[in-house]
Design a protein that fits this description.
The longest helix has 20 residues. About 40% of the residues are buried. The protein is built from 4 helices and 10 strands. The chain is an alpha+beta fold. Strands 1-2-4-3 form a 4-stranded mixed beta sheet, with helices on one face.
Length: about 200
């Protein structure tokens, strides 16, 4: 729950497939303590935390003996719910942001609207089904779950790239940097909801 005026939230989520504790502090420094049982996914979530400056404590125990799908998707759900709760009314935020992010041969753009209306546009093509043991299709599943539960309109477009690790990492870093900018407090409207409707609850 929100603690005083700090943008902090903690979400617990438990099903027959996963058990998750997700805590976020939106005005942090990018510190993280992340353990999902999926090494590559941990690495990507560390990038999300570090480059968004959202402090994240994430512990997921999932049915990885089956595959990584439930662990990745459900962690996205929990993080999204925690971000939405920490944002509260979304009062005073910049709301919109976009970035082109380069990593070696790969360029990926992310644009988002912290609108309360979840939507994902995903134009990212991997050229192999796996990065190590990690299914590349799960990158989209994570961002679908995150956008849906955080109430974010999110567009991710890979402009070009070859290395699948770089493609995945630019997705996480680009979304992180755009999210950082969009949830910052706008000094010109610190107490206002940035919408003519007067609400960003969908």
């Amino acid at each position: 729950m929100n603690m005083s005026n700090q943008r902090i939230a903690k979400v617990s989520r438990s099903t027959k497939e996963t058990s998750i504790e997700a805590e976020v502090f939106l005005d942090g420094t990018g510190r993280f303590d992340i353990s999902t049982g999926v090494g590559f996914f941990d690495h990507m979530l560390e990038q999300l935390s570090r480059h968004s400056l959202i402090d994240m404590n994430i512990t997921t125990k999932g049915d990885t003996h089956i595959d990584d799908h439930h662990t990745v998707e459900d962690t996205g759900i929990a993080i999204g719910k925690a971000i939405a709760e920490a944002l509260g009314e979304r009062r005073g935020i910049v709301r919109y942001a976009s970035i082109d992010l380069a990593m070696d041969e790969t360029l990926t753009s992310a644009a988002l609207d912290v609108s309360g209306r979840p939507f994902l546009v995903w134009n990212v093509a991997f050229n192999a089904p796996k990065i190590g043991t990690f299914d590349t299709e799960l990158v989209r599943e994570f961002f679908q779950a995150l956008a849906q539960n955080a109430g974010i309109t999110l567009h991710v477009n890979m402009r070009y790239g070859i290395n699948n690790h770089h493609i995945a990492e630019t997705c996480f870093k680009a979304v992180a940097r755009a999210l950082r900018m969009a949830i910052e407090t706008d000094p010109r409207q610190k107490d206002a909801i940035p919408s003519t409707k007067g609400t960003l609850k969908g």
